[in-house]
Amino acid sequence: MMDNKDFEVSNPPTDTITGLDFSSQADYLAVSSWDNQVRIYEVQPSGNTVPKTSYQHEGPALCVTWSKDGTKVVSGGVDKAGRMFDISTGQSTQIAQHDEPIKCAKFLDQGNVLATGSWDKTIRYWDLRSPTPIGTVQLPERCYAMDAKGPLMVAATAEKHVCLFDLNNPTVIFKQIVSPLKWQTRVVSCFADSKGFAIGSIEGRVGIQYIDEKEASKNFSFKCHRDDSKNIYAVHDISFHPVHGTFSTAGGDGTFSFWDKDSKQRLKPFPKTTGPITNTAFNRNGSIFAYALGYDWTKGYKQALPTNTPKIYLHAVRDDEIKPRTPKKR
């Protein structure tokens, strides 16, 4: 059963959720979904949520990200557009364009620069004051997942390519590797300290990868999101805790867990929910963990039943669930 202490977000999207992102300035949660909308909710200290506003794409919205100062939300969609919503004016404007759907969007720590990754096999960088990109990078394949933290940006594409960027020189791929996992990449997430990244795939595995060759001995992969009947589920999202550097995984099996990569331990498994978990996010201080339930399309359109209504839950994170453990003695 669900942990009934988790708060359900009121007025959730009407179709599968594709992105969750908390503001770094306040407890506001932005949500993108297949119903073409991006919604912004205020999370009150009581745990209750208030829908504040929403804006529209001309097709499914596939990703959402907050600006570092918490004044703007940017989303990308199947309409090939990057759209920015200004919190102070309530206006939405188009600020990015690709030749194919925009799958990923991230604000970088460097200035007010936005990076967008698309199925047109490019990453484009945007200064929000200009309608043309300030830089473009050709990727080996369609961009499926992307994350940035400090000087590190990681983009994962079709055919298991992973491109690493030093954002001091953002238009050059400084290293290209093949995913350590056997199957298609679903998610990449940078470590809190920018020293590496976690990668998750459709075969219920996560790879922990360090950037520096000297730390390559710390690289490892592990299985998760599999059940006792040997069913294997996709790892849909990986979120790092902003304080402790531990992380969550969530998957198509409807479960999420907290993990510590340094001691290679699972810190806490959580009970199975009522459906696949498509997205997760910690708030700015890691006290709230948001997770979205909804159909993940792994079984095709015939299983897209009206009962698979999307839901978002907020879990109040306790320190004993997420703090790193001392490594076990060998």
UniProtKB/TrEMBL annotation:
* Classification via Gene3D superfamilies: YVTN repeat-like/Quinoprotein amine dehydrogenase
Record keywords, A-Z: Repeat, WD repeat
Record's Pfam families? WD40
State the InterPro entries in the record. Answer: WD40/YVTN_repeat-like_dom_sf (IPR015943), WD40_repeat_dom_sf (IPR036322), WD40_rpt (IPR001680)
What highest taxon heads this organism's lineage? Answer: Eukaryota
Q: Which SUPFAM superfamilies match?
A: WD40 repeat-like
Instruction: Return the WD repeat spans.
Output: 54-95, 95-136
Q: In which family does this protein belong, per the annotation? A: Belongs to the WD repeat rae1 family.
Can you say what this protein is called? Poly(A)+ RNA export protein
